[in-house]
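Board notes (copied after class):
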Amino acid sequence: MKVSYNWLRQYININQIPEELSKILTDTGLEVEGLEKHETIKGGLEGLVIGKVLTCAKHPNADKLSVTTVDIGNGTVSPIVCGAPNVAEGQMVVVATVGTMLYPTGGDEFQIKKAKIRGEISEGMICAEDEIGLGTSHEGIMVLDTELKPGTPASQYFEIENDYVLEIGLTPNRADATSHIGVARDIRAVTGNEVKWPSVEAFKVDDHSLPIEVIVENPEACPRYSGITLNNIQIKESPDWLKQRLLALGMAPINNVVDVTNFVLHEVGQPLHAFDYAKIKEQKVVVKTLPNNTPFKTLDEKERKLRDHDLMICDSESPMCIAGVFGGIESGISDTTTTMFLESAYFDAAYIRKTATVHQLKTDASFRFERGTDPNITVYALKRAALLLKEVAGATISSEIIDVYPTPVKDFEVPVTYHHINRLIGQELPKDKINGILTSLDIKLENVTDAGFTAVVPPYRVDVQREADVIEEILRIYGFNNIDLPEHVGSSFLANSPAKDPDKIQQKVSSYLVSNGLYEIMTNSLTKPEYASLTKSLKDDEHVEILNKLSEDLGVMRQSLLFTGLEVVARNINHKQKNLKLFEFGKQYFKKEEGYKEERRLALFLTGATQEEHWDSPEKSVEFHHLKGLAEGVLAKLNLQTSGSTDSVTDILHYGLSLTLGQKVAVELGSVSPKILKALGIKQEVLYASFDWDLLLRKTNDNIMVKPVAKYPEVRRDLSLVINKSVSYKDILELTQKTERNLIKSVDVFDVYEGERIEQ
């Protein structure tokens, strides 16, 4: 977001130079990412001064040149050769001194140098208006009617205002700082200087010749809607002061009406929209939603299909504007507009955000509405804009302000204790300092006691609704750099942590997986509903559907981490990353008869090669035992041992195992079904493991049993068994565990042979 230094100074007294102000704002959380000089005239008339022609004589060697002497206020007289026919003794003129860069209108820049012209020394240049970028005339030099002393900067005479533009990296939570007044409020909190709001006391209704009716059918999406009509509008070019304000922010001036709405937007942060009053059918404005796929042509001349959750501004017959986002081509003002309806509204941020995202429309208005604007400023912004339109467009105010505000938005009330303030900040702050900071931020204090108070936060501070938010406001204004670092830093984390800390357990398992070469991923909990058709384990009637979905591809909450993880696998393979080892901690969601249900899961994904091809060894593909080893390693980290395993062949896994703890399945692992892989465009095998993380957290054993080191060396026994093909590894494992529990440490299959030579 861009902010003009000179524009800011209209609202608050700033004693700091732009660089110092940038540091102040950055320290308060409004990080200034760049500072640029903005010149209303290129070069800013730097090096140009007012001079007085003392003498003027014909050049001895050129009929069309004159030799002058000019007092430029530096205590010496400068000889200047001039080619203008109107130069004369006694004139006050504009002089470009030696070294000055000139930027002529429609020409190339050049530098003034000391020169000898036809044998005469010239130390400067007496300028015409086109030579310094002030106009297009080249009929002669500018002769000034002024009593200013020679040497006075020309920028002072022409009132040229050079500016500095601050580029602020605005975080999404700071909706209150999307305007010059908003930034000025933060400066006030630091410096103590008061914010000077532009006065609207001169506002009055001139007549009632343009009545208008406003109906809000959806007050949830539009809690407040204000408007006013104006007559005798003269659409024309804006005055220079207005154009320069917008140009400083990188905006192109359009006309006086549009420029005023943009000016007020950047001044106080309230978006406005102008409708041609004559085009509003039956002079009725209706705020409502329309049926799905209703066509609407926007200002960019594109026809868009509306969604049934898009809030629209309509007349009695048809839509006129996508509320808070973009206007329509049929109802906007034009060069022939003479009557106008001006809108100032407060829209629900969620509605605007969804609409702007679906239609891929990002405007200055939606930027502010989707973050949250001030519901209490709509009428003030209307009055401010109406007074400006009277000034620059000759408007007359032709109706009372219409203000539909059935349920006023209340302030946020946040209980705060001084103990919590000092604990979170890490330092005890004086109570009067705390109270002063909050008051300077328009946060009122009620129910004040020795222990704390209730902070009453204005609605435009949508980011301050919790005690921690209030404390953050105190800290950012007090200054992070003003907090003393204690000599001894202690922590009560371990002492206060529960016996089973889920975060610590998850961190331990994450570290184990990362140490084994896996990368953690984090996927979207919203997914495609059609994934349920690929497996019977996902049920359509158990989908948790999103009421106001952003798109069909993000219409439901996932019932499994499998598909969102496979999307990551597919994306990486498409980008030539075919060897992948990934894991994710996440939730899956279900709608049951008794209500909604969440389950925590851990998912592993292995695909490609574990060892790439080398000159001395071939490529080795990932195999099932790699996945099984990781799964057993995770359980070992949690001090858990499976009670058994069974083959797992489902429509998700076309081969695999289920590992159990007690009677419950703790892990399912195997190779993902080719049908599912094909649906996601994956042409290589993917191994997948899904852990019931809730079960593992309940079962994890913190009581580690320590045994003395065995007195005798470990002995490995290799047994070759001739068995029927129908006998599973599980049967052999259970038999060995029943036979001997104390001496046998582990049993594993390391080879399987099938052939004709085996006895039947």
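Comment from the instructor: Confidence is low (pLDDT under 50) at residues 490-499. The CA atoms of residues 150 and 433 lie 52 Å apart.
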